[in-house]
């Protein structure tokens, strides 16, 4: 998902699938993992050792594949956009990989769908890259994440912080999360570690 997409109207309830599917189907592509972000993950995340990980809002699958192939997590990527899921699956071209050719992919809306439809009932790592901003009910979303995260696991969140862009375009300035949203995200965890990367902030949250 993107830090560059336009913001839905404030008076409309945000429906993720209705918003994202036309963008992915129309060829819209978003910020890829850079080396600096990969390095931060290496510093904050544990080795997967074949344990299950869940990437929420997996988009074209870049992060899920990185977790699967470089960290050795048995990764599932979920996205509410069928076109994004199809695009992610089309990239799985490494038949010799230890954990198989690539992550598992599911078309699923984390905010509304039945969580029992997921491949696993619990995960040692849950990632949420450029997605938290778009959650209509952030408290409910975080409750769902906590239900899926095992004790001692990590919730890895990458999100834009409001006010960091050097632009006067209000549609871009408003893409970052507010101080209140940041406080909500970081409250209630036993361990909170953060690292800043240009307009982004990376969170490693442990229950």
Please explain how this structure is put together.
With 207 residues, the chain is α/β, with parallel strands linked by helices. The radius of gyration is 16 Å and the shape is globular. The model is unreliable at 1-11 (pLDDT under 50). Helix content is 29%, strand content 23%. It has helices spanning 16-25, 35-44, 62-70, 82-89, 138-148, 170-173, 179-186; strands at residues 52-56, 74-79, 104-107, 123-129, 149-160, 191-197, 200-206. The chain has a seven-stranded mixed β-sheet with strand order 3-2-1-4-5-7-6.
What key phrases describe this protein's structure?
single chain; 207 residues; alpha/beta; seven-stranded mixed sheet; 7 helices; globular; disordered N terminus
Architecture blueprint of SSEs:
Elements (H helix, E strand, L loop, with lengths): L15 H10 L9 H10 L7 E5 L5 H9 L3 E6 L2 H8 L14 E4 L15 E7 L8 H11 E12 L9 H4 L5 H8 L4 E7 L2 E7 L1
Parallel strand pairs: 1-2, 1-4, 2-3, 4-5
Antiparallel strand pairs: 5-7, 6-7
Short description:
The chain is an alpha/beta fold and 207 residues long. It has helices spanning 16-25, 35-44, 62-70, 82-89, 138-148, 170-173, 179-186; strands spanning 52-56, 74-79, 104-107, 123-129, 149-160, 191-197, 200-206.
Structural class: alpha/beta
- Number of strand segments: 7
What is the overall silhouette? globular
- Give the N-to-C terminal Cα separation: 25 Å
Q: Total helix count?
A: 7
Low-confidence stretches: 1-11
**Run of helices and strands:** HHEHEHEEHEHHEE
Oligomer kind: single chain
């Amino acid at each position: 998902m993107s830090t560059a997409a336009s913001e839905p109207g404030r008076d409309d309830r945000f429906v993720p699938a209705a918003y994202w599917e036309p963008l992915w189907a129309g060829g819209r592509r978003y910020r890829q993992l850079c080396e600096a972000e990969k390095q931060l993950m290496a510093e904050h995340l544990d080795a997967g050792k074949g344990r299950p990980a869940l990437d929420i809002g997996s988009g074209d699958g870049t992060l899920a594949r990185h977790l699967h192939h470089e960290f050795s997590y048995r990764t599932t990527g979920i996205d509410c956009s069928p076109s994004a899921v199809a695009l992610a699956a089309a990239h799985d071209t490494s038949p010799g990989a230890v954990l198989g050719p690539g992550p598992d992919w599911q078309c699923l809306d984390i905010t509304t769908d039945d969580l029992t439809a997921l491949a696993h009932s619990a995960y040692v790592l849950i990632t949420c890259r450029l997605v938290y901003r778009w959650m209509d009910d952030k408290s409910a979303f975080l409750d769902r994440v906590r239900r899926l995260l095992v004790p001692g696991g990590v919730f890895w969140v990458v999100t834009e912080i409001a006010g960091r862009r050097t632009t006067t375009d209000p549609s871009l300035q408003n893409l970052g999360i507010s101080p209140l949203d940041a406080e909500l995200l970081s409250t209630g965890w036993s361990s909170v570690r953060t690292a800043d990367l240009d307009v982004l902030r990376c969170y490693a949250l442990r229950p």
